[in-house]
Design a protein that fits this description.
homodimer; DNA-binding; about 250 residues
DNA sequence: CTATGCATCTTTACGATGTAAAGATAGCGA
DNA sequence: TCGCTATCTTTACATCGTAAAGATGCATAG
């Protein structure tokens, strides 16, 4: 339903001067959009911003990054194609706000995973495993957060959410190394430890989502999953690096 | 010059039925494109396919991934916007062939870097350093190879080039571990070693290109470069993993 | 209670893109 | 010399992002 942008656009280019009054009264407009806005007021949605973000997340997980367009989101929400502009400015704005939501979900998932861990070894494994698990459960969202070039990190919501994600990682690493970070400064060893951990998990996730680890998984003993491969990587890494055996 | 696709298109939508003979003779056409094709034959370019790929690489490094469009490449090459279709089918085709070229450049860069290395430690560092160096020198190309969703790996040229890249990595890892890979099968430890190395370098590169390591670099001692950070990561990794000290 | 202003949403319009389809051109073999 | 076919151009169209102007309804001042 509503295949062509609630009609209008790209139809006749020659006729129809820009300034024809035309007076489409409320009745004709309401008759044209029967299904949208079930019991809500048709005009003045009230919570269009949140509705658009939820619609965007649905579109993203259904049609992928390529399908996430302003017009598709507007269609999904049942409003005109230009409605999102007023709330987000442009596509970058919408995408950035959605990515901020993604980072918050992501942070929450990792925090809850760390809470349920008991032993130090388990704690060291819980975070990266939750990282990859989130990306597998929300591939569209993860791609939006880490693959899209149209993100505006100057937006406070996105900047803050992404910053919080980084802070969680840095804290986890410094806790594992048992040397707290003093202020903002980092030694080269600390920076290398953080960058190594982040690079490893992020790289693994990207390769996995892109299907580039299939080659390796096929060569492994039959039935080996990506999670088991990740665990093997993590265990050998942690074993070579933790202060003492658990 | 030639700002609007050699003219035509998007002009009048209503009039002009599809089948008007219209007979634009050769004279009018030649007069319309004066500057393109300097001394070559105007029609039947002869080596359009290669010219388009070179044009595409120029456009990619100049305008980034977002600027790499079929029409922009055609403009850059001085041909009509539909000319690439005949040689590559669609945008995925062109992009895939260009990515294959990128993989070949990439493989050559890493091979030559390994050749110049002498000590085992140097050999272990040369490949990942060349990896990151290539990505920094050709960010557009690397993004095309590892960020684009529009790649068709069923194309033989791309499949082969990417496969060769993976084989080089796997060989380097098995050489470092001093246990050759038997046939196609991998133990879980071998798979983990390969996936770990690839994930680390790929993740580092992506984060670096996306500017996400800026935060870490700023906190490091003043003047620390990305290369130094990478080296610190690699050295600690290799030190924990190589059979004996060098 | 009415009028005015403003935030919200819709219409209309335009340039750009990918792609399909049909026309034009040239080289090459029968 | 005459088609045949590969190569390139024209034309057309749906879709997208975005700008600009109109329509609508809520809030608030008078």
């Amino acid at each position: 339903m509503a295949k062509s942008d609630t009609r209008g656009d790209t139809k006749g280019g020659t006729a129809r001067r820009p300034r024809s009054p035309q007076r489409t009264s409320q009745a004709s407009r309401a008759a044209r959009r029967p299904a949208a806005a079930k019991t809500e007021t048709p005009y003045h949605h009230g919570a269009l911003r949140e509705a658009l973000l939820q619609a965007a997340e649905r579109v993203l997980e259904r049609d992928g990054l390529a399908g996430l367009t302003l017009r598709a989101v507007a269609r999904e929400a049942g409003v005109s194609h230009a409605a999102p502009t007023h709330h987000f400015g442009d596509l970058t704005g919408l995408v950035s706000e959605l990515a901020a939501i993604g980072f918050r979900q992501f942070n929450a998932a990792m925090a809850s995973a760390c809470d349920t861990a008991t032993s130090p070894l388990e704690r060291a494994l819980a975070r990266p495993k939750a990282y990859v698990a989130y990306a597998q459960a929300h591939p569209g969202m993860y791609g939006l957060m880490f693959r899209t070039e149209r993100l505006d990190y100057s937006r406070p919501s996105l900047h803050e959410a992404a910053e919080s994600s980084f802070a969680g990682l840095a804290n986890a690493i410094s806790a594992m190394r048992q040397e707290p970070i003093s202020g903002r400064a980092l030694t080269i060893e600390q920076g290398a430890a953080i960058a190594r951990a982040w690079s490893m998990v992020h790289g693994f996730t990207m390769l996995l989502l892109d299907g580039r680890l299939e080659d390796i998984l096929e060569r492994l003993p039959a039935g080996t999953t990506a999670e088991q491969l990740l665990e093997a990587i993590l265990k050998s890494t942690v074993a070579a690096r933790m202060p003492s055996g658990t």
